[in-house]
């Protein structure tokens, strides 16, 4: 495949993976936890490097999953102790992210990881970091990681579809009929963590946050059906990646930044022109 096509595939996989997972956060009113986890996984990545001396593959995913779970656990613990939810997220997010930034200073000369890289990523470099088996290049590592995480997320959603749906819309009823609500909550946190770290190296924390929150929010304005919102969020993520890449090439600007901006443009269009919830159609119905 060509250099350009690998970049487009990577962007689309980020949009699809994060869009589907993020839509569940939107429905659960947990969108800001995505912002927290997308930054705190930096600590998991750095921690995995200290243990394995490598930033590749499974150790990085495990480190991110552990820190993602810790983030959710600390936020929940603080909230149950009387701290407001948004304040709890702010405290945990800034503390763990800052610790990760400090620890980067100890490995900065050994790997291509710094604060700028963590925030913005560089999707243009993705095609150069390829998976080599037996001297044969099988494509970018990022594509394999994103594809693997997407498969795992879809498999988990398929297996626990009923439990996820019930605990999302009526957690009290779900608890009464024996649905493991706490388990589903932390399962979702693992999915968010894996999606984040798989996207992290390519596009950085900023685009990950955009793809986790905005496509799901856009789909929320366009449909009231759970399954439709899931696939529509992924489709909007893909569309944002395609529009963003085209705009970046045309205007010669940041690819990740352009993709993130595209999510915002699509949200504004849905906010204005959604048949049921759009501002324009609401005004027309009231006149």
UniProtKB/TrEMBL annotation:
Keyword ATP-binding: no
Signal peptide location: none
Domain of life per record: Bacteria
InterPro entries: ABC_BtuC-like, ABC_TroCD
Residue intervals passing through the bilayer: 6-26, 33-51, 57-75, 87-107, 141-161, 173-197, 203-222, 229-248, 254-273
Cell compartment(s), UniProt: Cell membrane
Primary localization class, coarse: membrane
Gene Ontology biological process terms from the UniProt entry: response to zinc ion; transmembrane transport
Listed Pfam families: ABC-3
The entry's keywords: Cell membrane, Membrane, Transmembrane, Transmembrane helix, Transport
Membrane topology note: Multi-pass membrane protein
CC per GO annotation: ATP-binding cassette (ABC) transporter complex
Family indicated by similarity: Belongs to the ABC-3 integral membrane protein family.
PANTHER family per the UniProt record, alphabetical: ABC-TRANSPORTER METAL-BINDING PROTEIN, METAL TRANSPORT SYSTEM MEMBRANE PROTEIN CT_070-RELATED
Name under which the protein is recorded: Manganese transport system membrane protein MntB
């Amino acid at each position: 495949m060509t250099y350009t096509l690998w970049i487009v595939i990577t962007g689309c996989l980020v949009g699809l993976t994060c869009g589907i997972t993020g839509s569940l956060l939107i429905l659960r009113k947990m969108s800001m936890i995505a912002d927290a986890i997308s930054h705190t996984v930096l600590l998991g990545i750095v921690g995995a490097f200290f243990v394995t001396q490598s930033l590749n593959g499974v150790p990085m995913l495990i480190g991110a999953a552990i820190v993602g779970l810790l983030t959710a656990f600390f936020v929940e613990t603080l909230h149950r102790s009387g701290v407001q939810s948004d304040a709890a997220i702010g405290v945990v997010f800034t503390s763990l992210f800052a610790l990760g930034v400090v620890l980067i200073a100890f490995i900065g000369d050994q790997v291509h990881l710094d604060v700028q890289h963590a925030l913005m990523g560089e999707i243009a470099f993705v095609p150069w970091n390829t998976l080599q088996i037996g001297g044969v290049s099988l494509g970018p590592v990022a594509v394999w990681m994103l594809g693997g995480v997407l498969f795992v997320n879809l498999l988990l959603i398929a297996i626990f579809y009923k439990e996820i749906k019930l605990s999302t819309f009526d957690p009290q009823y779900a608890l009464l009929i024996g649905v493991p609500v706490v388990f589903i909550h932390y399962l979702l946190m693992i999915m968010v963590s894996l999606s984040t770290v798989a996207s992290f190296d390519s596009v950085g924390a900023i685009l990950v946050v955009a793809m986790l929150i905005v496509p799901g929010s856009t789909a929320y304005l366009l449909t009231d059906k759970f399954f439709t919102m899931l696939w529509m969020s992924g489709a909007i993520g893909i569309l944002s990646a395609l529009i963003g890449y085209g705009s970046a090439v045309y205007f010669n600007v940041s690819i990740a930044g352009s993709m993130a901006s595209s999510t915002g443009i699509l949200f504004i269009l849905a906010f204005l022109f959604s048949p049921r919830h759009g501002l324009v159609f609401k005004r027309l119905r009231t006149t």
